[in-house]
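Weekly structure sync, notes
Attendees: PL, DS, HV (note-taker this week)

Item 1: Alpha-hydroxy-acid oxidizing enzyme
DS walked through the input record. Source organism listed as Streptomyces griseofuscus. Sequence as pasted into the shared doc:
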Amino acid sequence: MTTTAKTSSAQGAPLSVREYEPLARELLDPVHHDYFAGGAHDEITLRANEAAFARLALVPRILRGRGRPDLTTDLLGRRTSMPIVLAPTAFHRLAHPDAERATARAAASTGAIMIAAMLSTVAVEEIAAAARKTAGDAQLWFQLYVQRDMGFTEALVRRAEDAGCTALVVTADSPALGRHVRNDRNDFHDLPPGMVCENLRSLRADEPGHVRQVDLSPELSWDHVRRLRAMTGLPIVIKGVLHPEDARIAADLGMDAVIVSNHGGRQLDTTPATVTQLPRVLDAVGDRIPVLLDGGVRRGTDVAKALALGAAAVAVGRPVVWGLTVGGQQGVEQVLGMLRDELAHTLTLCGCAGPAELDRDMVAREDPRW
Ligand SMILES: Cc1cc2nc3c(=O)[nH]c(=O)nc-3n(C[C@H](O)[C@H](O)[C@H](O)COP(=O)(O)O)c2cc1C
Ligand SMILES: CCCCC(=O)C(=O)O
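Item 1 (cont.): predicted structure, written out as tokens:
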């Protein structure tokens, strides 16, 4: 095998997930690229998420004769093809005209769970229809920013239920919108003409689905979540957990899972990298409810590290947007396929028959003094 081949995207098809980013950047309006790529304030957390994975080392086991790994995973009582979920990301029409429909088809054809964003540019019913047409058993979770107007929140929940979504993902790290220097500089605060948040459309003429209609409020509390719990039989996942105590409260209130997330570094800057905070959250609730993680997952080895520490699954945000931008449905399929194949390869090299065979002893922290 030669080792001269350049892996740069200029040489042909991308060979790694990261190689999709510069390709997407070439295609996107620079203002929209900044929106997708950016993080809050100094983007310290944005960088920290990826850097923390690089500081962890995998310690493989040898000669265990495990054969080819099986990636199938149970999440919230249902089987999924792999422990890699599509994180909710808003505004897919900025990336590709097929928008969330393409993402949903790609997730469905890969057998992966898509978390549809409340702020999607295609209505949840249409996203669900696209997914189901591709695979009858496609699983869609619905991400919700709980609105203080609980009547409106309930209307959204009913739409998600009626569309066949099988879980609600409540984003809890956004009592205010993160400040993005890039968006401020670009004066990007709403969608361009002709695009709206389809799930926010209402019959009122002054509410045609503008981003500014979204209520991100510091008044939101566990009380709202309790009311949501009483409102629906769907499993509820709390996204944006960093403090172990919050994970404990979520479990006490009957939540079905939590996602350790700092919103991809887009909310409070200087929060810890998610993978460094994961063990603390797992120590608090890991034996009670599944703990997922997102932020900075770019390689199968990153997935394996999070799983080895005890995550039930990971979610990916920006890589999906890059794939969508570059190739619509096919681009997202390629990105998901790469992560799946890299995870399978990593498990093989670690001597594991499946994600469940990874354990904490197989991850070591690289000591920077060595
Ligand atoms: C462009 C973009 C839009 C996002 N929109 C949402 C959203 O509407 N709701 C939400 O809960 N999280 C949103 N997120 C956060 C993601 O769900 C996820 O936490 C984050 O992207 C994970 O980090 P990663 O991009 O490094 O994979 C968004 C992230 C990005 C990059
Ligand atoms: C009001 C836009 C919020 C979408 C979002 O969550 C993000 O861009 O991170």
